[in-house]
Amino acid sequence: MNGLINRAIQCFLRDGWGAAAWQDAARASGVPARGFEPMLTYPPEVTERLLQVAADRLNRDRDCLLEDLGTYLVSHPSRAAVRRLLRFGGTDFPDFLQSLEDLPARARLALPDLVLPAMRVTVLGDQRFVLRIGDGFPGAGAVARGLLRAMADDYGALALLEAGPEGSAGAAEVTIRLLDPAHAEGRSFTLGARE
Fold first, then answer.
1. How far apart are CA 12 and CA 69, in angstroms?
2. Domain Heme NO-binding: where (predicted)?
3. Which secondary-structure segment (H or E) carries 125?
4. Are residue 98 and residue 163 in the same domain, yes or no?
């Protein structure tokens, strides 16, 4: 598993539950307390073990924890670069959804070692979309649901998300129903690093 993904999990646990919670999960899963080196690659079992230990220690369902990770990636101030990368995809939430197919390539431009699973968006009509995520990361559907909820809020849209089937290698499906594209005022956004 890419070190950047593992590092994001580490920061999510530390920022959400404190350094002691991160160190406890790291120790129990056999990860050094100093954490992950973002530019290294780790066996997928390391990530799976860490996620399971963290879910157990925090008394959380693994998928709920991963949904919260998706939300964290967009909404936490320390992840502003992720939000900028995502907001670059469109001026409104429907544009953003349709740009998700390009996200793996955009991410590789910024971080050449980061390999995201393939994504395909199908427009069903009547403000309904289906996001299909390819193999690569078990739990990607849950992360995507959290990320999509946070992005809908970021754009000021009201959307209903439904989890679809998920394969053991991470392939997943999320159905998005856009209830109101202008439900609330979205967060301000500028392409530059300062907001």
1. 6
2. 3-148
3. strand 119-125
4. yes
| Cα gap 32→160, rounded to integer Å | 39
DSSP states along 48-104: HHHHHHHHHHTT--HHHHHHHHHHHHHHSGGGHHHHHHHHTT-SSHHHHHHHGGGHH
Helix (H) or strand (E) holding 160: strand 158-166
**Residue labelled with tokens 């995201």:** 116
**In this structure, are 102 and 169 located in the same domain?**
yes
Which CATH number does the domain housing residue 154 bear? 3.90.1520.10
Considering the domain architecture, whether residues 38 and 97 belong to the same structural domain is answered as no
Radius of gyration of the chain (CA): 16
Is residue 16 within 8 Å of residue 55, measured between CB atoms?
no
Per DSSP, what are the bridge partners of residue 119? 133
Among the three residues 45, 60, 75, which one is the final residue of a domain in this structure? 60
Whole-angstrom Cα distance, residue 68 to residue 64? 6
| Sign of CA pseudo-dihedral 87, 91, 92, 98 | negative
Residue 190 has pLDDT above 70, yes or no: no
Distance of alpha carbon 66 from alpha carbon 47, whole angstroms? 12
What's the whole-number average pLDDT of the chain? 90
- pTM score, whole prediction: 0.90
Number of domain units in the chain = 2
| Domain closes at, from 40, 60, 80 | 60
Q: Report how far residue 39's alpha carbon sits from residue 111's, in angstroms, rounded to the nearest whole number.
A: 10
Asked whether 173 and 132 are in contact (CB, 8 A), the reply is yes
